[in-house]
Amino acid sequence: MIEVLCAKELGDAAKKRISEIFVDAFGHHLSFFSKDKNKLAKALEHMFVLDVFHIALFEGEIAGMAACTNSDVHSVNHDQSDLRRHFGIYKGTIANVVFKREFQKPIKVGKRTALIEFFATDPKYRRRGVAKAIMNHLLSLPQYDEYILEVTNTDPRVIRLYEKLGFREFERIKQKYSRLSGLDYMVYMRYTK
């Protein structure tokens, strides 16, 4: 059985697991800072805002996660001194600049529009309904009428999954430095109740 709940219900104990899942899903984009997944997870653990993260428990274990916010609250709030402590002064300072630009850029949406971010499932729980359970939970939140998410064009299976759930693409933005990042486009998708 899969149970989905707000991460704040588990408290700070959830941050470690959220960070591990985050690094497993998105860590390849952060390999400049460290190629060691454990080091990355430890360095990022402090930054997740539990009030906006929703987690799926599969047989009592955190199996997946997603952040859902209306842009009044950022889903991550990093601390430059923590980043420097884990990555060193040079890479920690660069991480601070990059994270501000990438994770805390203001995206203004209406009060009843949600931004879904950092949607990820632990690899050992994939194809077990975890992602669908999280998405169904988010889409049932009464305070939102519309949902927007951002995905990369590098995995067409993910885009097809979101389309099956009712999301429709409304914009593609060409990425600068696509050869370096490996991303050609960011794809923006919308779901309206």
UniProtKB/TrEMBL annotation:
<keyword id="KW-0808">Transferase</keyword>
<dbReference type="Pfam" id="PF00583">
    <property type="entry name" value="Acetyltransf_1"/>
</dbReference>
<feature type="domain" description="N-acetyltransferase">
    <location>
        <begin position="2"/>
        <end position="193"/>
    </location>
</feature>
<keyword id="KW-0012">Acyltransferase</keyword>
<dbReference type="InterPro" id="IPR016181">
    <property type="entry name" value="Acyl_CoA_acyltransferase"/>
</dbReference>
<dbReference type="InterPro" id="IPR050680">
    <property type="entry name" value="YpeA/RimI_acetyltransf"/>
</dbReference>
<dbReference type="GO" id="GO:0016747">
    <property type="term" value="F:acyltransferase activity, transferring groups other than amino-acyl groups"/>
</dbReference>
<protein>
    <submittedName>
        <fullName>Acetyltransferase (GNAT) family protein</fullName>
    </submittedName>
</protein>
<dbReference type="InterPro" id="IPR000182">
    <property type="entry name" value="GNAT_dom"/>
</dbReference>
